[in-house]
Structure formats: structure tokens, C-alpha cells
């Protein structure tokens, strides 16, 4: 397995690239917490308990060490209040994933600061920062293990009752109980293959189980059938409730429900507002939305 202990050192070095493989990210995050590429300060500041989940980007600029000629983020500033849902929208390469990478502190900012509940993440223990976040990646990793183990991965040591409650909240229990051995069914390699929508609901169940105040959601671009779509949307609603949510949005339902949408392009914020206000404005968002969402639906929604 690539996760063998001996590979860990090498893994932390290539973390930048690996974190692009969003499916593996949550697994690697757990492992790298043991040996973070970015060192904890000698005397880390504790994050408040409970953490309210306010996220602030204050004039954040960042250039990847591997691409020194091009800055990925340029003086990015925003505040997400506890419990708020903010969608990030922007063309490919705009810097959306970089916002997620910096929040998880896979890199440190070059200028400015990122604060969680007012604490600069550089002054906190990276493990404590990551413990406050649940991540639902675009491509969900399903391990060669039982369904139960796959969900429990969200919080190792969770009881069977907790796993099942999370599966119910994630709209996953119905399909799980229809599998030959229910929660004990082997999935992944040499096991049952789960559909895209089922995999997404497993990831949502993991995040519900993790019960972190901050949710980072990298929405899948691949289309689901209408039934799956409805179930995934209901599962997400349950997950996002009362959590600060930052979502890289690809679906109309998501942007419609977001409290605010941040539109970024070439590492800068170019627009900010609700779906309705941004569509009316007729700028970059309106153009992206027109390309990405069905025109008819968009017009109805903008009424
Ligand atoms: P997409 O929608 O295609 O996923 P994005 O908005 O998430 O794009 P980012 O992945 O954040 O964009 O990329 C922002 C910029 O940083 C791009 O120019 C990209 O090429 C560059 N970049 C991203 N990851 C790395 C990396 N690990 N090393 C070097 N440059 C990177």
C-alpha cells in the first residue's frame, strides 16, 4: 500500500501534488497529522473549544514554490461567519483549490493571514486546525473494507450506532441495507462497486460522523441521475446545517442556497453576492453560470 509507514517521509514532500488528488486527501491528512510537512509552533495557541468556525482571509497572497513566476492568490480577503455557507466560483486555475489547501495549512501564506476564530493558523498546531475541518472531496476514495469501516473512517473509534446514525443522515442507509450483507458488505477493490452518488453519500456520512465545525466541500462535477442528485442534495443539507461551509460549487442548487458567492479569477476576488444579484449584474459570474448551468433553470432562478 502507498500508505505504508516507510513511504510517509516521501509523501509529505510531494504533498503539494498529492493534495491535488482530492480523493486521497482526507486519508493523507490523517497520516500527515503524525508528521506534518509544516511544523507546529513550539508553543501553539489553542483554538477555542468549542470552535465557532469563523474563517477570515486577510489580504492573503500565495505563490506555489513550484511555480514562482505566477501568484496563485493575490490579496484575497473575506470573512465567513460561523454557520454561514459561502460558495466559491471561478474559472479553472482561478485559485479555488488553493484556498482549500491554505485553509488546511498544507502551505503557509506569503503575505496576509488566515484566521480561524481569530487565531492565525500559523500560531496553532496544524493537527488542531485540521481536526476542526471535515472535507468532502470531489473524487471519493472507497477503501477495500466494509461499508461500516468506510464510514467509520470519518472518526476512528465511532460506535456502530454512531456510524448508522451518520449513514441515515447522509441518505445512505437505504442503499446500504439493500446490499447483501448490509453494513458488513465489502466494497472497493474485490468488493461491491458503489455508484458515484453512493460514494458521495459515504463521504458525506464520514463528514457527519467527524462532526467538525468547518466543512470544506469540493463538489463533484460529474452529473448524477435525478434520484441520486436529490438524495445527495438532502444529505448535504443535513451536513451543512450549523457548520461553516466553504464549497467549490458546480451545481445550481448549491449556489442558489449559498448565503454568499465569491467569484474569483486569476487569484483575485472579482465579484461577491447572491446568485440573484450576480446574475443581474451580468459579469463573470453570470457568464460562468450561463455556461455551467442550464440556461432555462438559471433564468427561472433569477426571476
Ligand atoms: P480548477 O477549477 O481547475 O480545479 P482552481 O480554481 O481550483 O482550478 P487552483 O488549483 O487553486 O485553481 O490553481 C491556481 C493556480 O495555481 C493555477 O495557476 C495552478 O496551475 C497553480 N497550481 C495549483 N496547484 C499547484 C501546485 N501544487 N504547484 C504549482 N502550481 C500549482
Looking at how many chains there are and whether they match, the oligomeric state comes to single chain
Which value, in Å, is the CA radius of gyration?
19 Å
Mean pLDDT: 85
Gross morphology is globular
Question: Percent of residues in beta strands?
Answer: 15-25%
Helix fraction by DSSP (H/I, runs of at least 4): 25-40%
Poorly predicted segments: 1-23, 32-36, 295-303
The tally of beta strands, per DSSP, is: 12
The biggest beta sheet is recorded as: 6 strands, mixed
- The number of helical elements comes to 14
Ligand inventory reads:
adenosine-5'-triphosphate
What is the SS-derived class? alpha/beta
Question: How widely separated are the two ends?
Answer: 53 Å
- Arrangement of strands in the largest sheet: 6-9-10-3-11-12
Listing every helix as H and every strand as E from the N terminus to the C terminus, the arrangement reads HHHEEEHEEHEEHHHEHEHEHEEHHH
Fold and architecture overview:
Helices cover 39% and strands 19% of the residues. By secondary structure, it is of the alpha/beta class. Helix 7 packs across helix 9, helix 9 packs parallel to helix 10 (226-240) and helix 12 crosses helix 13 (284-292). The chain binds adenosine-5'-triphosphate. Adenosine-5'-triphosphate is lined by residues 16-17, 64, 66-67, 70, 72, 90, 92-98. It is found in: Cell membrane. Belongs to the ABC transporter superfamily. Its main location: membrane. It comes from Aquamicrobium defluvii.
